[in-house]
Amino acid sequence: MIQIDSVTKRYPDGTVAVDELSLEIPDGSITVLVGPSGCGKTTTLRMINRMVELTGGRILLDGADIHAQPVNALRRSMGYVIQNAGLFQHRTIVDNIATVPRMLGWDRDRARKRARDLMDRVGLDASLAKRYPYQLSGGQQQRVGVARALAADPPVLLMDEPFSAVDPIVRKVLQAELLRIQAELGKTIVFVTHDIDEAIKLGDMVAVLRTGGKLAQYAPPDELLSAPADAFVEDFLGTDRGIRRLSFFTSAGLELTTAPIIAVDSSAAQVAERTKASGAPYLLLTDTDGKPLGWTGPAAAAKGGAALSVAELLPHGRPFVFGKESLRDALDCAVLSPTGWAVAVDDGGRVVGVTSQTTIAEAIRGAHAERGAAGSPSASAKAAAAEAAAVDPAIAESKAAESKAV
Ligand SMILES: Nc1ncnc2c1ncn2[C@@H]1O[C@H](COP(=O)(O)OP(=O)(O)OP(=O)(O)O)[C@@H](O)[C@H]1O
Ligand SMILES: [Mg+2]
């Protein structure tokens, strides 16, 4: 665990970049520092590996002050990744990645073997090993940066806006890869970004900082979305908080029906029977392997099996992977579906059922109820209610109602 304990950084010119910041960064998870430009994110990150020396408070790594060990030993236990990767331009990719192992005295072959293993792990083709950084795309360079930081297998990874310089599509891929690598390696990652969506996607815990290096809120992303501590956090989170929060609710418990599903090789009698049984004007047609082909229109029922013409189908839209994707995905599928029904598939893309907007809305209400109305009241709202209770029970009641309504 990394404990940041009342840490302050005052630069020599008097700028207070970080002010009495306290955070407990748990092991084996991703903690994101997010906030507007100049709020002290980079300063905080660099104080952890002592590239910037703090001027107040203390930082503990596994219970020991970071000043208790030589700075080089401290930095060896912490990989560091920056925007634009910061690669050595005169070294090949493989030698860039092998930098730290070589510094640690590994022989060249062993260090290069490790580097090649890591290239594979971060999704870089082996054919790029002998190239120089300028011969790689921005996204590829960023992967090299991650591989280099992992080379000596440090328990801690510090990442400062590592994906900010790449386009949104590559960025999404890199984010997904980081989550995949993290699931395998379980590092303690401190990740800096100014992008709240990136913070919500990657963070197990998210610290929102405000200008002047003050902590505005420290919470899991789900809680941040449901109960922002104040107007600053709420504003920083932006719109659609409710919809975005649905990405933390699994689709696993969603009620599905198979009644309107029918295979393409069904007889007219079967189509008529299905139409009657489902009571729906639409049937979802699947191929013989169970994969969705599209929805039949209302005319299909009237015309019987003769209407099962693939050419006349309405598109089934994007299906969601049942149990793997979230209620947000399911809702999105239903909203985009021409019939208002979302199609649920298994890992292999075969239909397991369909579900309506109404059923999804019920599941959302159920998920909210399970987690405490529209989310547990934030710590500050709870504290305010407790404080008011000491003064006047009537105020306490109205405050509690208010915090629930967040
Ligand atoms: N060496 C320095 N001397 C004086 N002030 C500094 C120094 N480095 C940073 N600052 C100031 O400290 C504050 C925090 O800077 P920092 O780089 O930590 O912000 P940041 O949150 O990483 O911003 P960004 O999102 O733009 O990267 C800013 O006001 C900055 O101008
Ligand atoms: Mg910065």
Automatic annotation (TrEMBL):
InterPro entries documented for this protein? AAA+_ATPase, ABC_transporter-like_ATP-bd, ABC_transporter-like_CS, CBS_dom_sf, P-loop_NTPase
Q: Does the keyword Transcription apply?
A: no
Q: State the UniProt keywords alphabetically.
A: ATP-binding, Nucleotide-binding, Transport
Identify the EC number(s): 7.6.2.9
Recall the GO molecular function terms of this protein's record: ABC-type quaternary ammonium compound transporting activity; ATP binding; ATP hydrolysis activity
- A matching Pfam family: ABC_tran
Residue intervals of the ABC transporter domain? 2-237
Family recorded in the similarity comment: Belongs to the ABC transporter superfamily.
The entry's protein name is ABC-type quaternary amine transporter
Q: Which organism is it from?
A: Actinacidiphila alni
